[in-house]
Design a protein that fits this description.
Blueprint: E1 2-5, H1 7-17, H2 28-35, E2 38-39, H3 49-58, H4 64-72, E3 77-80, E4 83-86, H5 90-98, H6 104-112, H7 114-127, H8 153-164, E5 167-173, E6 176-181, H9 195-210, E7 212-213, E8 232-236, E9 239-245, H10 247-250, E10 260-262, H11 268-271, H12 273-280, E11 302-306, E12 309-319, E13 324-332, H13 338-355, E14 358-360
Helix pairs in contact: 5-9
């Protein structure tokens, strides 16, 4: 059976799956569990991405200190591949970790630097947790790339060992990440899951978090955005091709409770730009890598969700020294009515209060 959905129904399924309705989740762990992943991009033009993602779901009760405690003390969450995840999902990643690194270049580099790898592990065993700068670079073969990793052998080795599950990120502070042996960060006694079962469960959890997704989409380096054959087949009115939809979401379409939210540019609702255009008819590009003169919406513009539509972008920057959330512009993709204007301004005011900053600039 193929379900036929309107665009509005598909959007509501996606928004509800991402916990962006008026029915807010109860806590951080519950939120991360439902989302499956929370992006850790640290750029803090407004706030770090993980904080924005969690605040947009939980609202004023959310505090970044609670996230730190859950990661670094309670070990209820962990960091892998640039995302926070629940520790309960670690068994589902073991098979993926065992296949890392994927590229032949990286595998050859690890093999050529086996002595260096053993030295890094010994330093962590004896003195961890450590920063990359705390570990001598004794690589037999230097890492070569066209990017920022060129010649940064210790960091590159640690990154690969984290992806392999031998090393884990123990904590973060103003100086960056601290690394330790995985056995001292990850709890013992977690269940073992067969690779094929893990792959299917990850796909099922991913679809539940997205609500609706393509069976196959653009490959991602760490966390996929497609779901394979799990869920139910669906079509969306006015959009070519078929989709997979979470079975539990089909029955919940009628109970949609809308609200307004300001989203991180790395939010999973907006991360898949093709899906964003097809379902929401919304154009978005993160412009912090563009020269200022070429930006249309701003350095770190926040997508604005209003009900089941993405209606604009908020160009704002937190000036913590001045104690100000400076609103440079509110870009309206469609003209806001009075209700939307009031709701968006209320969210901006709430964002300022949560950050402890005075809101200045723009109309309102």
């Amino acid at each position: 059976m193929t379900y036929r959905l309107t665009r509005a129904q598909a959007r509501r399924i996606a928004v509800r799956a991402q916990l962006l309705t008026a029915d807010r989740p109860a806590g951080i762990v519950e939120t991360v569990d439902a989302l499956t992943v929370v992006n850790i991009e640290p750029t803090a033009a407004v706030a770090p991405s993980a904080d924005l993602i969690l605040w947009s779901r939980l609202g004023w009760p959310y505090r970044s200190a609670d996230l730190v405690r859950l990661v670094e003390e309670d070990r209820a969450l962990f960091e892998w591949g640039g995302f926070y995840r629940t520790m309960a999902d670690l068994p589902l990643l073991r098979a993926e970790m065992a296949q890392r690194p994927h590229s032949r270049e990286a595998r050859d580099w690890l093999a050529a630097n086996d002595g260096f790898r053993r030295e890094v592990m010994a330093h962590l065993r004896d003195r961890g947790p450590l920063r990359p700068t705390d570990i001598p670079d004794t690589a037999q073969v230097s890492w070569r790339s066209s990017g920022w990793t060129d010649n940064r052998n210790t960091l590159q080795m640690l990154e690969m060992l984290v992806l392999r599950g031998d090393v884990a990120i123990s904590s973060r502070d103003a100086g960056g990440r601290l690394f330790d042996l995985a056995e001292r960060v990850y709890p013992a006694g977690l269940p073992e899951v067969a690779p094929e079962d893990a792959a299917r469960e990850r796909a099922e959890r991913r679809l539940a978090s997205l609500g609706i997704a393509r069976a196959k989409s653009v490959a991602q380096p760490i966390e996929p955005i497609d779901v394979g054959t799990v869920g139910l087949e669906a079509t969306v009115e006015g959009v070519p091709g078929t989709w997979r939809v979470d079975e539990a979401a089909i029955g919940d379409v009628a109970g949609f409770a809308p609200r307004t939210a300001l989203l991180s540019p790395f939010d999973r609702l907006v991360f898949d730009r093709r899906r964003l255009e097809e379902l929401f008819e919304y154009e978005y590009l993160l412009e912090m890598y563009k020269p200022a003169a070429k930006r249309r919406w701003g350095y770190f513009a926040l997508p604005i969700l209003h009900g089941d539509r993405l209606v604009g972008k908020l160009d704002a920057r937190a000036d913590r020294k001045a104690g100000v959330l400076q609103v440079n512009a509110i870009h309206e993709d469609v003209p806001f009515d009075a209700s939307a204007t009031a709701a968006v301004q209320s969210e901006i005011d709430d964002l300022g209060r949560w950050l402890g900053l005075e809101v200045r600039g723009a109309p309102g």
